Every structure is written in structure tokens, then in C-alpha cells.
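Inverse folding, one chain.
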């Protein structure tokens, strides 16, 4: 059973294992709140997951450790389990979905675990791990639906309340619910007035839908690049705790997550993975009633696969108005391109790519479509460019 004493005990066990991550001001991020970031992306293994995994394994007896450790994970819990098991002299086997980022798979192996990739999502890896545990008698370390794992994650709540006693709101990413359950339990017991808000990816809203309907929901599928929170079904323990201690849950889109990752890189010099950035995305895109409030966003992890980072940045640039494409219908005669370029340059934007299209059957034979890719400051600048082009007689298609 989860208690505040258990969370404090977890903090004692973890004091030489997990670092107390910094709580840093984020005044440059575009939000209406007084925003701070709890930088669990800078935690050992790059994620908060070490806390729960290490504390859980530390509470096993020698016989349980000798039987071996089995876990399932989208990547971050895997690394926490691998490090914790290796340090405590236990052999670990971790089941991961075959879609898990290569960086997380290799990091898990490097920390001493055997990795078994399974076809499908986290939930498929979970089923395979449970089956193996039943066959072997090894000790299963659940990534979220376990009171000792939740207690380990709850140490983040203790740290926030110690680092900022007058915090008014804490925004927490949700996958299965282990992190928010622990943080909410700790924070609410220390200060019942603090607001706890949860955030899920709109394409993986299992806890959001469960709270909305009043019963634990299993989603037919999840599809988000925030792989750390791509969970079809929340935990029974975590669902009960979320219903009792969490004030509100919201969702954010893939584009909003990408914009948050970009903003943290550019403004705060921090790298967050998709799951770690959803809290900041909720603050940036006004999903929650935090205007003027002293608000902490937990950046839960930073293990983003570099192979998708460039795509995420590109999406973030588009979502924040930093990249834009214009399609303009032109008469195919000399000087047209010069006219367009002069207006874009006068407005302060930078043209990075131009393409002429002559073969579209919907255009006149003497016309063409001009597609211009631009680097821009924001949506206000994009709108000003469109306005001046229109006033100059150019027809904007999109």
C-alpha cells in the first residue's frame, strides 16, 4: 500500500543512486505561467524511471533477486531496471516493442540487461514478459502498476516541494500513470492546495479516456512518437490514485509536442523526448488554467532517438511558424518571381526553396504554380507576407 512514509523511505534508498535534478526557471518559453522545469531528462539513464525500478528491486529479498528480474518497457523503464538489477547483483531480461528507439535498446543492453524485442506496442511486450515470468518464476518489475515503483517515482514530488515550497501547479506526463500517481500522492499530502495536472499524447489517451468514462479503458491502438507514454491501458493502482489526487488531464497533439521539444532546445538548451515534452506542450498551448501561477513542468525524459530528431525539429518549426510554404498562381512571364522575392525579402523572411509547376491540369496554359519554402519568425510575419503579396496582385492558393 502506498504511504508517504514509503515515499520518504524510497528517497533515502535512492539518495546515492538518483540525483536530485535541478528545478530551473523557464521565462523564455511562450506560456502565461511562471514556468519552471523539473529536469528528469538529466537524470541518471536520462529518465525518471530509474527511481521506481531501483527502489522496487531494492525491496526484493535475495531469493527473489536470484530468480532473476523480468520487465517490459518502451525504453526508459528498461534502462532503469537494467542499471538497478546490475548494481544489485541480479540478472535482468527486458521485453521491448520492436518499435522502440534503437538508442534505448542499445543503452539497455549496455547497462547489463538481455533485451527481447516483441512485435507490436508496449502492451504486446507486457504480455510476452508476463508469460515468460510465469514460465521461469523470475520476479516481474512492472513499469507503473506497483506501489513500490510508484513510491520511487513519488520522490520527484518530495523534491519539488522541497525545492519550491510555494509551487501552485505541477504538470506531469502520463503513460501508465506511475509518475503522476507518485508525484500527486506526495505533493497533495504535503500541500493539499497544489494543483496536479496530467498530460497525454492525443494519439494515446488511455488515462484521459479512463477518467472521462469512469472506468479503465483499453485503447484499440496507440500511435505517437512519444513512445514513452504510448500505453493502451492504465494500471489499476494508478487509475485509482489518479482519480483521487489528480485535478485534470488534458491531451496534446503530435505537432504541439514537436513544438515543445524545439522550444526547449532553442530557449532552454535542453533535449527532451516526446514523452518528456508533453507537460511543456500543455503549458505552451494553453491547455490548463495556469495563467500567472508558479508552475512546474516535469520533463520526464530526454532519450529521443537522433534518427527522428530532425523530423521532430522540422515539425516544430512548422507548428511554431518558423517554416512556411506558400503556393502562388502566377502568369508565366518575366519578372513574376522577382516581384514575389522582393516582397518576401522586404518582410524579412528568407527563401530556402522554390519550385515551378507547369503541368497541373487545373491551371491555364499560360500560368504556373510557384511554391516557395521560407524561414520565418512567426505566424504574424507569415500573415504579413500573404497580405502584401495579395495587395500586389498575386493570387495565393495555399
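Residues assigned per position:
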Amino acid at each position: 500500500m502506498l504511504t508517504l512514509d514509503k515515499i520518504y523511505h524510497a528517497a533515502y534508498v535512492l539518495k546515492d543512486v538518483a540525483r536530485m535534478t535541478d528545478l530551473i526557471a523557464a521565462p523564455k518559453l511562450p506560456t502565461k505561467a511562471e514556468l519552471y522545469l523539473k529536469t528528469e531528462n538529466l537524470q541518471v539513464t536520462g529518465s525518471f524511471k530509474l527511481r521506481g525500478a531501483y527502489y522496487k528491486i531494492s525491496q526484493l529479498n535475495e531469493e527473489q533477486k536470484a530468480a532473476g528480474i523480468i520487465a517490459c518497457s518502451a525504453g526508459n523503464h528498461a534502462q532503469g531496471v537494467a542499471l538497478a538489477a546490475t548494481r544489485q547483483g541480479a540478472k535482468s531480461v527486458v521485453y521491448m516493442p520492436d518499435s522502440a528507439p534503437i538508442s534505448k535498446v542499445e543503452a539497455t543492453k549496455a547497462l547489463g540487461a538481455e533485451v527481447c524485442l516483441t512485435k507490436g506496442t508496449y502492451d504486446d511486450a507486457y504480455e510476452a514478459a508476463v508469460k515468460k515470468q510465469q514460465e521461469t518464476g523470475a520476479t516481474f518489475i512492472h513499469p507503473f502498476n506497483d506501489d513500490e515503483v510508484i513510491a520511487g517515482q513519488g520522490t520527484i514530488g518530495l523534491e519539488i516541494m522541497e525545492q519550491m515550497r510555494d509551487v501552485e501547479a505541477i504538470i506531469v506526463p502520463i503513460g501508465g500513470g506511475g509518475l503522476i500517481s507518485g508525484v500527486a500522492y506526495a505533493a497533495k499530502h504535503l500541500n493539499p492546495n497544489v494543483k496536479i495536472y496530467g498530460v497525454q499524447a492525443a494519439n494515446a489517451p488511455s488515462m484521459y479516456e479512463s477518467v472521462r468514462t469512469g472506468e479503465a479503458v483499453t485503447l484499440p491502438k496507440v500511435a505517437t512518437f512519444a513512445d514513452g507514454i504510448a500505453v493502451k491501458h492504465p494500471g489499476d493502482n494508478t487509475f485509482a490514485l489518479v482519480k483521487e489526487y489528480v485535478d485534470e488531464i488534458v491531451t496534446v497533439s503530435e505537432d504541439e509536442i514537436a513544438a515543445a521539444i524545439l522550444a526547449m532546445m532553442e530557449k532552454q538548451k535542453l533535449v527532451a523526448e516526446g514523452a518528456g515534452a508533453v507537460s511543456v506542450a500543455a503549458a505552451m498551448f494553453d491547455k490548463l488554467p495556469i495563467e500567472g501561477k508558479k508552475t512546474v513542468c516535469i520533463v520526464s525524459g530526454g532519450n529521443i532517438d537522433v534518427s527522428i530528431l530532425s523530423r521532430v525539429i522540422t515539425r516544430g518549426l512548422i507548428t511554431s511558424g518558423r517554416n512556411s510554404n506558400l503556393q502562388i498562381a502566377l502568369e508565366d512571364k518575366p519578372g513574376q518571381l522577382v516581384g514575389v522575392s522582393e516582397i518576401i525579402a522586404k518582410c524579412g523572411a528568407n527563401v530556402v526553396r522554390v519550385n515551378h509547376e507547369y503541368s497541373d491540369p487545373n491551371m491555364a496554359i499560360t500560368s504556373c504554380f510557384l511554391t516557395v519554402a521560407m524561414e520565418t519568425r512567426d505566424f504574424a510575419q507569415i500573415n504579413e507576407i500573404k497580405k502584401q503579396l495579395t495587395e500586389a496582385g498575386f493570387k495565393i492558393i495555399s
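Residues 197 and 207 are 12 Å apart (CA to CA). The mean pLDDT is 92.
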